[in-house]
Amino acid sequence: MTLSSDVNYLAVLVCAIVAMGIGSFWYSPFLLGKMWLDSMEKSEEEIRKDLIIAYSIARLTIYVNATTVTEGMRLGFLCWFGFTLTTMTINALFEGKSLRLVLVDGGYHLIVFLVYGIILGAWR
Question: Which residue of 31, 98, 103, 106 is 20 to 30 Å from 22, comparing CA positions?
Fold first, then answer.
């Protein structure tokens, strides 16, 4: 697979920046930060992979020809459901993590993936 000039790199960068903003609010004390920290039972920072995920979804929008906000959101939802939520749930079950932690983290990723879909679908 080669890098393609079809990818809108500015849109990918905007997705990563928006995801960091959503994460800052989502995991803040104003929203779900306290619940998240309590569920994690630790206070370490999560390492962000937002650029890689945004680039991957940008590539997928090209492969499936998602050129509208609705198509982008569908793709974002399918990526979240098929890859992120299932992986998170399996890991949580084996690691004995709480359902509350899966819901907090899963909700964050759902919102981010939908926003990626909106930006990447609209910006093609």
Answer: 98
